[in-house]
Amino acid sequence: MRSRCTFAAAWTAPSWVARATTSSSPCSPTTEVHRVALDYRLEFARRYAGVETVNFKKVPDVVAFLKDQFEGRGPDVVIDAVGMEAEGSKLHRVLGKSFMQAGVPVAINWAIQTVRKGGNVSIIGVYGPPWNLVDIGTAMNKGLTLRMNQCNVRRYMPHLLKHIREGRIDAKAIITHRFPLEKAPKAYSVFSDKKDGCVKCVLTPAA
Questions:
Q1: Each residue of 172-189: pLDDT tens digit?
Q2: 7-148: CATH superfamily
Q3: Quick one: CA dihedral 21, 23, 29, 31, positive or negative?
Q4: pTM of this structure
């Protein structure tokens, strides 16, 4: 493995932010991280994980910008933690509303276009069936490795709990809102619509 590994990530959810702070990362400790998201979540990422961030709305071409940050070749690894909820064009919205496409493939296409030749793209953002307009030809021509899956919670929960117990992840710092269990619909709405600076909600059952 090379002594220096760089990676970028597009994200809206906080589910993997703590990953950048763990010493088990193959890219530690010389990792450069760029995230594409809402301003308040970018600020959270800078504060919590100590990473560099960029808002795609504030640069002319986010792919060109990110490549430039990595000496023009792109990062070794890109993580798509956005999935089909990315902002897209009018065409994407029409295809989505007519159920001809399962969401918007902007984040995965940015990942494929940004990563270096021979690099790796990890997809943890959710995409639904039946299909999406993914730039698979570019991925093939660049010789990329794509890995994707739904989270295997049963497998990884013990490892995550170990990180928390040993102080590598401060899980409480991710929580911004707490609700009683009966307010679950409201909690979901606050989280899904990204209201009130929400990063992560916790439901507390009645004692």
A1: 888 999 999 999 999 999
A2: NAD(P)-binding Rossmann-like Domain (3.40.50.720)
A3: negative
A4: 0.79
